[in-house]
Design goal:
The protein is α+β, with helices and mostly antiparallel strands. The chain has helices spanning 36-46, 74-84, 102-105, 130-136, 157-170, 193-200, 213-224, 230-245, 248-253, 255-265, 337-351, 364-373, 381-404, 412-425, 460-464, 469-478, 492-498, 516-519; strands spanning 3-10, 24-31, 54-60, 69-71, 95-101, 106-113, 116-123, 139-140, 153-154, 174-180, 185-190, 288-291, 299-306, 324-332, 429-432, 437-442, 445-450, 455-456. The protein is elongated, with a radius of gyration of 37 Å.
Length: 531
């Protein structure tokens, strides 16, 4: 946020020609979008002015042909700041500060009534200055004002007490009387977590938005002139998230209904919920676990692989996340042997046993998936699962469109690698040894290719299941095509089959038709307690 330096000229008077004479000089720095309240309080704090006893009058001169302009509200500050932006040097457009004492212009006389005594604000019988004429016209008698701000004049203390009580209820905040005398009242707001939370709710509409308690402190001070402690800002964030997403504990009770609708919407999917004897949550359903950041502790486990648009495992980086194919995700109470065992049992039930399948405990695939979902880990349990479902829905639809726009025999990246390998193969010489065994010469290096066992001594053929330059050279020597020497998963047809089952949106919660025994099922948060 941009700052602007302002010169203050004070402690002298205006002459008959609209000029400020014999002044003292000081300076302040404020935000360019400061409010009137913030500007007034900054000046008061810097010059050590007690605003409960003094009135600060702020003026400035645009040019010598115009009379001084008085700043009395937010619009006045905005106009001044726009003018000041034309010349941001310290001496340009200084503010002329006049400090007035309530005692010289206002007096309190007491009237005795049957019910007791009440203070009544009256002007003393002296020649009226412009300030007195101005204040006389705006004395507030109503106890239900729409706006309460610094510098207002009320007819008596009973009226301002009633007005503040009404205003605080209507605007959902608390206040305390810091100082009070027969002539003035100094009131300090006590912003509650609920009030501040309601102000910052829009900041958390998108789970990807990072808005910390420190950010709340900064914004509340700059935009509202309210100084919060870190703990107050943290409680405000918690309240905002509860209003927006509900209480984290309540989300666990929604799990049975959510999982029921999930299973009905996606027939054939494996959806499981496991609880302890006391109804506490255990688990829901390149393997990896990532810590959740919500109120209750937990771990999200995920199993992923690659689809036919990628080359090899070590190419997966966050910006290539579109090539990841998530297979299963699972939220558990903690990452331990029992949780992993349960996860793999459900995974086996869903996918069955397949040849040449392994899991890699650490890989860039898992780290990339973690990076994409890191901002969702603060969500309550049902919202987290729905975030993952939305992610899969978006990825599946995007990848299906991409697969349909692929017109090569293999997926795009595998087809490109095959072309590159074919180009390199033309530089190689082949010497046959047996029907399926060939020696391929690459300068002074030589490689052994066994087509029958699909192996090459370079190792690349076995790793990628795609013909390397040495294999392609041997195949060309035999006048044989490469099709039977590549993984079946790399073809366009299999890429289309990968995404042929669409991930459709879930119906709105208001349209859910869930059996009563499901809605009445109890699921409590993990027994480990809150974070």
């Amino acid at each position: 946020m941009s700052k602007i330096s302002i010169m203050l000229q004070l402690n002298r008077n205006w002459d008959n020609y609209g000029r400020y004479r014999d002044f003292q000089v000081d300076g302040i720095v404020v935000d360019e979008d400061a409010s009137y309240s913030l500007l007034n309080s900054t000046i008061a704090e810097h010059l050590m002015i007690d605003t409960s006893e003094k009135i600060i009058e702020i003026k400035y001169i645009v040019n010598e042909h115009c009379p001084p302009m008085k700043i009395r509200n937010d619009m006045g500050v905005c106009v001044y700041m726009e003018t000041k932006k034309e010349n941001k040097s310290l001496g340009a457009y200084p503010l002329y500060i006049t400090i007035r004492d309530f005692n010289l212009e206002l007096s309190i006389t007491n009237s005795i009534t049957v019910a007791g005594s009440s203070g009544t604000l009256k002007l003393i019988d002296i020649p009226k200055s412009p300030a007195i004429v101005e204040y006389e016209s705006i004395i507030i008698t109503e106890s239900t004002p729409n706006v309460i701000e610094v510098g207002q004049i009320y007819q008596d203390k009973q009226t301002i007490a009633s007005a503040m009580k009404h205003y605080s209820v209507m605007n959902k905040f608390q206040f305390r009387v810091k100082r009070s005398s027969a002539r003035s009242t100094f009131i300090q707001c006590k912003p509650t977590a609920m009030v501040v939370g309601s102000i910052v709710i829009p900041k958390y509409a998108n789970p990807k938005t990072i808005y910390t308690p420190k950010d709340i402190q900064t914004d509340m001070l700059s935009e509202h002139g309210v100084n919060l402690t870190y703990m107050q800002a943290s409680r405000a964030k918690k309240k905002a998230l509860e209003v927006l997403r509900g209480h984290p504990a309540d989300s666990y009770n929604k799990l049975p209904s959510y999982l029921y609708i999930l299973e009905k919407t996606y027939p054939g999917s494996v959806v499981k919920l496991k609880k302890m004897d006391d109804d506490c949550f255990l688990p829901v359903v390149v393997v990896d676990g990532t810590f959740l950041k919500s109120t209750y502790k937990g771990i999200m486990l995920a199993a992923s692989t690659m689809d036919a648009t990628c080359i090899q495992i070590n190419c997966f980086l966050p910006h290539n996340v579109g090539t990841i194919l998530p297979l299963a995700y699972d939220v558990v109470d903690s990452e331990n042997d029992a949780s992993w065992k349960w996860f793999f049992e459900q995974f086996k039930h869903a996918y069955g046993e397949r040849p040449n399948i392994t899991w890699t405990m650490t890989s860039n695939i898992a780290e990339s998936l973690n990076d994409v979902t890191k901002n969702a880990r603060e969500l309550p349990i049902v919202e987290l699962l729905e975030y993952m479902r939305n992610l899969l829905e978006r990825w599946t639809n995007e990848k299906l469109l991409k697969a349909k726009s692929t017109f090569t025999y293999l997926g795009f990246k595998f087809n490109k690698e095959l072309d590159d390998n074919r180009t390199l193969s033309y530089k190689l010489r082949v010497r046959a040894s047996k029907d399926y065994i060939h020696t391929v010469l690459d300068g002074v290096m030589h490689y052994i290719v066994c087509l029958e066992n699909k192996r090459c001594s370079c190792g690349q053929f076995q790793l990628e299941e795609l013909p390397c330059p040495h294999v392609l050279a041997a195949l060309r020597y035999r006048d044989e095509s490469f099709e039977q020497y590549r993984s079946p998963y790399y073809t366009r047809d299999n890429l289309l089959r990968t995404y042929e089952i669409q991930v459709n949106p879930l119906p709105d919660e208001s349209k859910w038709n869930v059996p009563q025994h499901i809605t009445e099922e109890v699921v409590n948060p993990p027994s480990g307690g809150k974070r």
